[in-house]
Input
Amino acid sequence: MQANLQEGRHALARKIFHGRAGQLYQRYQDGMEDQIGALGLVLHALVLFNTRYMDAAVTQLRAEGFDVRDEDLARLSPFVRHHINMLGRYSFQLPDLPGGLRPLRSPSEE
Output
């Protein structure tokens, strides 16, 4: 199980660090440490984002009467990455969202 968690973390880090094919190109140690620190910060932000939304989704599903079993939740990973756009434009202005989260899609929209 621990190996799968580490593999998921490394896969997400590779997805984030795609621009240089996962290679550090700074010629000095401080520059490499800065790159690794920034990668860690972004990686942790994505894990927090995923965790908050997975928790909100599970809470909503349970409130709507769906049977969400704890043994199924134990298999969820905050390292999912298919929904993350690694290319493009980004806005860092926080929108005014009720409860701090975007509205969740209903299961029927899938």
User: Anything to note?
Assistant: The chain has three helices and no strands. The chain has a mean pLDDT of 77. Residues 2-109 form one domain.
